[in-house]
């Protein structure tokens, strides 16, 4: 799956992404509370400089900005990044956001205390070299002893059972209920799958069916942790949904001190 198709996927979804949630503002607040807690636990009260390198329309970045952090957003989708900045401003926050590939982050070395890559964004990178480039870039832009935060699906179970669909999610709008679900078509390697994202939106006594397609790499926790360690991160920790309160497993890791093994490298996104 090409990077252009991933960009197209999120460009097309950007206008409707909030409909994935029953209450998008409530979800933003809940996610920010959990993520802020993990950041404070590792780095102290802050506020901290945060790069959300797969910010989408701002589901995590807006909440973190409203919590007092100095957040910058970037996303492969320029449509999503533009909306993220606008959504923050509409809520009285500030979120500079730009279109950028997480494999080539356009930020100076050691610019941030935290790099966040949430909402199962990293698995859109389908090869080891692409994943390494992204993680090395994230480490490069982190300050010494900075914090990496990644959230992904629980792929250990998915790799075992190979589900073909996700349960439908229903959100309420002024025009009625919006139904969202995904179909998964697994590759022969048993690790990657093509994803079809369906949204059924009410439209004058019928449904407007919107379908977007991309691909994902179902990285298991040991696989992802290995890539993170190879990029030079330390203190790699998995936080289960039960322990963190977040809706996906969360990996945190430290960028370590300058000069440690692993070095900084040059560095789709969602």
UniProtKB/TrEMBL annotation:
InterPro entries: Methyltransf_25 (IPR041698), SAM-dependent_MTases_sf (IPR029063). GO terms for biological process: methylation. Keywords: Methyltransferase, Transferase. It comes from the Bacteria. CDD domains: AdoMet_MTases (cd02440). It comes from Streptomyces naganishii JCM 4654. Pfam families: Methyltransf_25. GO terms for molecular function: methyltransferase activity. This is SAM-dependent methyltransferase. Residues 50-146 form the Methyltransferase domain.
């Amino acid at each position: 799956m090409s990077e252009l198709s991933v960009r197209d996927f999120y460009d097309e979804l950007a206008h409707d992404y909030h409909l994935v949630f029953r209450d998008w503002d409530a979800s933003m607040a809940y996610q920010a509370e959990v993520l802020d807690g993990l950041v404070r636990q590792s780095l102290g009260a802050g506020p901290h400089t945060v790069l959300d390198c797969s910010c989408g329309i701002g589901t995590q970045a807006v909440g973190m900005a409203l919590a007092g952090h100095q957040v910058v957003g970037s996303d492969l989708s320029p449509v999503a990044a533009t909306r993220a900045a606008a959504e923050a401003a509409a809520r009285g926050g500030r979120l500079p956001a730009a279109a950028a590939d997480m494999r080539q982050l356009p930020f100076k070395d050691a610019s941030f205390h935290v790099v966040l890559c949430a909402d199962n964004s990293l698995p859109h990178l389908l090869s080891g070299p692409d994943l390494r480039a992204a993680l090395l870039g994230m480490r490069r832009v982190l300050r010494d002893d900075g914090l990496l935060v990644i959230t992904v699906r629980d792929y250990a179970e998915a790799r075992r059972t190979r589900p073909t669909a996700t349960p439908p999610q229903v959100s309420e709008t002024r025009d009625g209920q919006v139904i969202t679900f995904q179909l998964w078509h697994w590759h022969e390697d048993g690790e990657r799958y093509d994803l079809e994202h369906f949204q059924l939106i009410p439209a004058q006594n019928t449904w407007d069916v919107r379908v977007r397609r991309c691909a994902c790499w179902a990285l298991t926790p040991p696989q992802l942790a290995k890539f993170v360690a190879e990029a030079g991160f330390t203190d790699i920790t998995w936080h289960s949904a039960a322990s963190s309160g977040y809706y996906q497993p969360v990996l945190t890791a430290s960028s370590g001190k300058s000069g440690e093994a692993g070095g900084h490298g040059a560095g789709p996104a969602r």
